User: Fold these one by one.
Assistant:
Number 1:
Amino acid sequence: MEYVSRERVRPLTLVLSVVSLAVVFAAAGGRVPASAVPGAPQWVLDLIPHVNVAISAAAIGTIIYGWRAIRRGAVDRHRVSMLVSFGLFGTFLTLYLYRLIATGGPQPFPGPDLLYQFVYVPVLAVHILLAVACIPVLYYALLLAAAYPIAELPRTSHARFGRIAASLWLISFSLGIVVYLLLHVSYA
């Protein structure tokens, strides 16, 4: 069953990507005031990074499971796994942006300057770059899956874009866990 018109896959990818990235950059750039989100107790804000690392680990698991499922020809398992992965990604991003807006910005790095400059910043930069690059690739793969019946998907670029999206996703989520460990475990 076709859920998205085939002719609209590319324009929808573009619109969704631009809107998503605009929201992310507006929140990260301090353009969204804290009054724009409902207040939460400090313990909720403090809990979000720990919830997000669990979400990241779960997403890594569902992406790998979905990748293995499609290699084995289990299309339904692959589809469910990738949709769960996308839901986890959306939940992670919503919680992250909420905390970022509610607290007025990113958490400062608590470790030594040398570690900050030569480990934390490069890891964080690659994590963010891959997360940003993943957005349009991910939307395109998902919209192709929604626009074509399963039997026709092998004749599209869904598999190629799906492999790219999954790879970017896995590395980004993994680096996000490293960022969490540096911020919340190593120097806690």
Note: The mean pLDDT is 94.
Number 2:
Amino acid sequence: MMLTILLMACITFFTRYLFLHQRLGFKVGPKMQQFLSFSAPAVLTAIWVPIIFLNEGSINLNWHNPYLSAAIVAIIVAYKTHNIYYTTLASMGLFLILN
């Protein structure tokens, strides 16, 4: 298991290194940069959507869902304040109160 973790760490490091190191001759074109700009939102959406909307394999859209309520509060606070600390504290505080 430790070998798997080390190999995955090496793979992750070297894939990042190829894109970030300045001396390497590897350059990404403008179309590829535009294509890659969608990868972070896509991955983050794939992470948060099942957490918020799915409960035991079924869609949970009622107001008693603490994940959904905290997410709605996070969206509102983020829109109003543009402050990541207030957003995190408000949504986590509500989530802890509801749980």
Note: The CA atoms of residues 17 and 24 lie 9 Å apart.
